[in-house]
Design brief:
The complex is a heterodimer. By secondary structure, chain A is mainly alpha-helical. Helices cover 75% and strands 0% of the residues of chain A. Chain B is built from 13 helices and 2 strands. Chain B has a two-stranded antiparallel sheet with strand order 1-2. In chain B, strand 1 and strand 2 form a beta hairpin. The longest helix of chain B is centred in the middle third of the chain and has 37 residues. The chains are: A mainly alpha, B mainly alpha. The interface between A and B is large, with 53 and 46 residues.
Chain lengths: 310, 291
């Protein structure tokens, strides 16, 4: 077990280093730099000074090692777009908005997704199952911005219930929260369905049924509890999924969150911000995968990794 | 391919088709995609103008009417033509991406599964590396480095979507190589590449096809997301994502500019994923009898 975890951490670290090297070199190979103004070009002397100040005059590998060293100590430098504040403050300020709406979206998605999945697993191939499956497929496969636009059409332009965008008060929160919830909802419903179907076929369910237990007791106590394990493993990566979702949700509903910075930092060659954002996502994703793998061995005694005959 | 029982690998085609066909959602998906394919083939016959022709400059932003079913866009192009030609672009991007992803994923997965050891470790680290970065962000970066345009977008999408097929093939090869026939082949002295290509991969064809089909809607969705952010296909090539993004500015006034491409994008991606899901359920013996 311990050797497994150590091996797992080591391989995660390797992938993290590969990712950061690839991203770092790609970022710097985009033509043009952060201080190449076309409208008001800086004088060569001034530009040189600025580049020196940000350490951009040094060779790439020196910049990379320096950045990673500082990042290890939680010093992320300053964003070129917003030099007045520390990077951590900028991210905290914007992440709070995204995490607030995204978190509520997830809180909405879990119960609804679980319910849809259970309902369609109880009566497979019924009309209800088709409707739930179709809804799940829709939210998974259709980009979130398309659904957001449909919502704007129906609830803002048609029914005039909510404003088309902005961030101020509960009325402006509802549509973004629903938008955030769509993708996780579909994934949860789909996994719940297939995992419940698998469990409902197990002999112990038949035993429980033949003991005369009530239908719902069998479904909730015996089936759902066992079906929950695979569902747990897909829930964790969704927290980081919020961040990529925010790129679209926040553009459509004009919300001052983190989402916009993912794209603008690439356009504006804002190296420190871009690197920090990508580092943030990859580290949290790598960590969640690690936690999932370890949790798996803890939750389910049938899974014993690194041993034969699991 | 075994003619007597008509099967590909371990999967019986007739039986699979029966399950596949019984699924109503899949049938709907097949129907929609069939109509869409017909529409793109006969696009020049059913549309009043080419997708880039600015023929209607005096009717800019006109709402849908009998002469312009989906209205006219901001630079005088018939919007129905653009949306219909958009099917061509989407399906082209989706299918080509899936095939390129197949050519990256299958060899890597097969080698990793068959050889194991260091090769497996390296391939799996590569897969893990590509999986921890959100594909959208990598794609944006790649496009900014390599430049936008249809070809680049397709290659970049393939580069961020080969991992699922690779994992799938690796898993299949891992289980298949323990089978008696593969051990027997080894025992009579067959060479490794022969065992891999003649015995193992043909038996893994069915799941590979499922992976391939499921890859198509994913690629279309990613392309639409890239184009929506302005880093996808170059104008005037009609891309739904780009059309939606352009129309978003006028959504309160000229609703037709966003609504029609959004509906077509949703229908295409949804139908393709219905087909993929139906295929997966039909091929997967574990789900048999329930679908």
């Amino acid at each position: 077990m311990t050797t497994y975890i150590i091996k797992r951490i080591f391989s995660s670290l390797v992938s993290l280093i590969i990712v950061t090297i690839i991203i770092f070199s790609m970022m710097h190979s985009i033509p043009g730099g952060p201080f190449d103004e076309t409208k008001m070009p800086l004088s060569p002397a001034a530009k040189e000074k600025i580049l020196k100040m940000y350490g951009l005059d040094k060779p790439l590998y020196v910049q990379y090692v320096k950045y990673m060293w500082n990042a290890l100590h939680f010093r992320f430098g300053k964003s070129y777009q917003s030099p007045g504040e520390e990077m951590t403050d900028l991210i905290k300020r914007t992440l709070l908005v995204s995490a607030f709406l995204g978190g509520l979206g997830l809180a909405l998605a879990f119960p609804i997704g679980l319910l849809l999945g259970i309902i369609s697993a109880i009566k497979p191939n019924s009309l209800v199952d088709y409707l739930c499956t179709a809804l799940a497929s829709y939210t998974i496969s259709v980009p979130v911005y398309v659904s957001s636009i449909f919502m704007v059409f129906i609830f803002s332009l048609g029914l005039h219930w909510f404003p088309t965008g902005g961030f101020g008060g509960p009325k402006t929160w509802i549509m973004p929260i629903i938008a955030y919830s769509l993708f996780p909802l579909g994934i949860i419903a789909r996994y719940t369905r297939s995992s419940m179907l698998e469990v409902l076929n197990e002999p112990y369910i038949l035993t429980a049924k033949s003991k005369g237990l009530s239908r719902w007791r069998v479904i909730i106590h015996h089936a759902f509890k066992n079906a929950l394990i695979p569902i747990l493993t897909i829930m964790l990566p969704m927290f980081t999924g919020i961040m990529t979702g925010s790129i679209f949700v926040e553009k459509i509903f004009r919300i001052p969150g983190l989402g916009g910075y993912f794209v603008t930092s690439i356009y504006k060659r804002d190296y420190p911000l871009e690197m920090t954002l990508i580092l943030f996502i990859t580290v949290s994703l790598a960590l969640t995968y690690l936690v999932i793998d370890i949790l798996y061995t803890v939750i389910d005694p049938r899974v014993r990794l690194g041993k034969k005959g699991r | 391919m075994n003619v007597k029982t008509l099967s590909v690998g371990r999967v019986d085609i007739l039986e699979t088709w029966r399950y596949f066909h019984k699924n109503k959602l899949t049938s709907i998906g097949l129907g929609v995609i069939f109509v869409f394919i017909l529409a793109t083939i006969f696009a020049p016959l059913i549309t009043p103008a080419g997708y880039a022709e600015q023929k209607y400059l005096h009717e800019i932003n006109n709402f849908p009417s009998i002469s312009h079913w989906f209205g006219v866009d901001a630079v005088g192009r018939d919007y129905f033509s653009r949306v219909i030609y958009g099917i061509r672009v989407s399906l082209l991007v989706g299918s080509t991406t899936a095939f390129i992803a197949l050519f990256i994923g299958v060899p890597l997965g097969a080698l990793a599964g068959y050889l194991g050891g260091t090769v497996d470790w390296i391939v799996m680290r590569l897969v893990e590396t590509f999986s921890v970065i959100p594909p959208l962000l990598v794609a944006i970066l790649f496009v900014t480095v390599a430049g936008s345009g249809l070809q680049n977008v397709i290659f970049i999408l393939a580069l961020v979507s080969w991992m699922d097929i690779c994992r799938l093939v690796r898993g299949e090869v891992l289980t298949l190589k323990e089978r008696e026939y593969s051990i027997a082949a080894k025992a009579i002295g067959a060479k490794s590449y022969r065992i891999l290509f003649r015995h193992l991969l043909p038996n893994a064809v069915a799941p590979i096809i499922v992976g391939l089909v499921l890859c198509v809607p994913n690629a279309i969705m990613l392309e639409a997301m890239l184009s929506f952010l302005g880093v996808g296909v170059n104008p005037p090539t009609p891309s739904w994502g780009q059309m939606i993004s352009d129309g978003l500015y006028y959504i309160q006034f000229y609703w037709h500019l966003t609504l029609f491409p959004a509906i077509f994008l949703a229908l295409t991606v949804l139908s393709l994923s219905f087909i993929g899901d139906g295929l997966r359920d039909a091929v997967d013996p574990k789900l048999r009898g329930r679908r």
